[in-house]
Amino acid sequence: MIPDTELITLRDGRSIRLGPVEPDHAGSYRTYMIELADESPWTGTLSHEVKDEESQRERFEKIRGHPTQWVMGAFDPQSNQIVADCSWDSIDYDKFRHVASLGIGILEPWRGVGLGRILMERGIQAARESTIVQKVELGVISDNQIARALYESLGFGVEGIRKRAVKQPSGEYCDDVVMGLWVGSD
Ligand SMILES: CC(C)(COP(=O)(O)OP(=O)(O)OC[C@H]1O[C@@H](n2cnc3c(N)ncnc32)[C@H](O)[C@@H]1OP(=O)(O)O)[C@@H](O)C(=O)NCCC(=O)NCCS
């Protein structure tokens, strides 16, 4: 059992534990990121670009209690390993601090059973509760229909298309769709 976590039941009956990603999870997080990058063409990072454990630890130390950074992990209750995450942060400039940039990923065995929607809802809720963040933005590769359907169903709108902004290792270019959701009160 990991402190500050919540056990929830997914659509297929499996349990998953949700909670903050702490500095001590740096190794597990790195393993998860490498696995995700190796099996999904939709991530922005290739596996050899995933930062080392110490850098991950520093990131999670910084996120703790930070007003414009948020992260939630999903932990397999059997192994306590991270199998999914959702996070957002905004850049440290006065004119842009109200805009948080969100990312989400789930390992293949845990997809399609409602976890993505739950993590997105938690991320949006955390942004709504923030006194600083008023908008959540994300980028999604145009062919990623599953992710796009999820974001649209949560109220995200398309704000632009960055043509050929992504180059896959195969050499194929993809468009990056910029989507946004206003979460502020005005
Ligand atoms: C995109 C991703 C986060 C979605 O999470 P998920 O847990 O698989 O999605 P959920 O089971 O919560 O389903 C959410 C919605 O996605 C869509 N969806 C999910 N699986 C689908 C499938 N097999 N076919 C079509 N649509 C699907 C549906 O609109 C679904 O809506 P519903 O809740 O009404 O059923 C996840 O698939 C993933 O991590 N993929 C690889 C990495 C990635 O694409 N990251 C996002 C980069 S922008």
Uncertain spans: none
Element pattern in H and E = EEHHEEEHEHEE
Task: Walk across the major sheet and give the strand order.
Answer: 1-2-3-4-5-6-8-7
Number of helices: 4
Q: What is the CATH superfamily classification of the domain at 6-133?
A: Gcn5-related N-acetyltransferase (GNAT)
Indicate the CATH topology of the domain at 6-133. Aminopeptidase
Give the termini separation: 40 Å
> From the 3D coordinates, which CATH architecture of the domain at 6-133 would you assign?
3-Layer(aba) Sandwich
Question: Which molecules other than protein and nucleic acid are bound?
Answer: coenzyme A
The shape, in one word, is globular
Beta fraction of the residues? 25-35%
What structural class is derived from the secondary structure elements? alpha+beta
Q: Write down the CATH class of the domain at 6-133.
A: Alpha Beta
Radius of gyration: 16 Å
The helix content, as a percent range, equals 25-40%
Overall pLDDT level:
96
Main β-sheet: number of strands, strand sense, barrel status? Answer: 8 strands, mixed
Number of strands: 8
